[in-house]
């Protein structure tokens, strides 16, 4: 079923989501290296990704999760240049649910890129994967990340107390969800 989503999703004339693959390892490493300070504030995995080989291992795991129908991880390409990642994670086809996760290089923040990419992935999740629920989690102090689900009509469900361990401390996460029936009304 997941294989029907395709390896590339067109967002608009300048943005493309490309299914993550081995040839992305070097560029992902460089992108994270340049954005390390910006990303490590919100993402627990950043400090563990210290080499191209770390990214190759991650990509292999992502490809395995794709084969197991539990993940659809994409790189975000803007005019053929990689600028971030976005995907459907924790896909549960039995319960028809998934989570969206994303990050973007600092130079491209505030341009609506993640919102536009999320719209495409949400459409694909509800229409092609027949999901019923999509969730986004963001740190309670990450207001830019929280603005995305709000802009897309998600409902704030609550807070997961100490839900993530980042930079040697636990942080609280806001949980937002969107149901298929709500998305049909929103778009």
Automatic annotation (TrEMBL):
According to UniProt, the name of this protein is: GNAT family N-acetyltransferase
Arranged from A to Z, the UniProt key words for this protein are: Transferase
Q: Which Gene3D superfamilies match?
A: 3.40.630.30
The record lists the organism as Niastella caeni
Q: Does the keyword Transferase apply?
A: yes
An example Gene Ontology cellular component term from the record?
A: cytoplasm
- InterPro entries, from UniProt? Acyl_CoA_acyltransferase, GNAT_dom, Ribosomal_N-acetyltransferase
The residue ranges of the N-acetyltransferase domain are 26-181
Q: Which GO terms describe its molecular function?
A: protein N-terminal-serine acetyltransferase activity; protein-N-terminal-alanine acetyltransferase activity
* Pfam entry (one): Acetyltransf_3
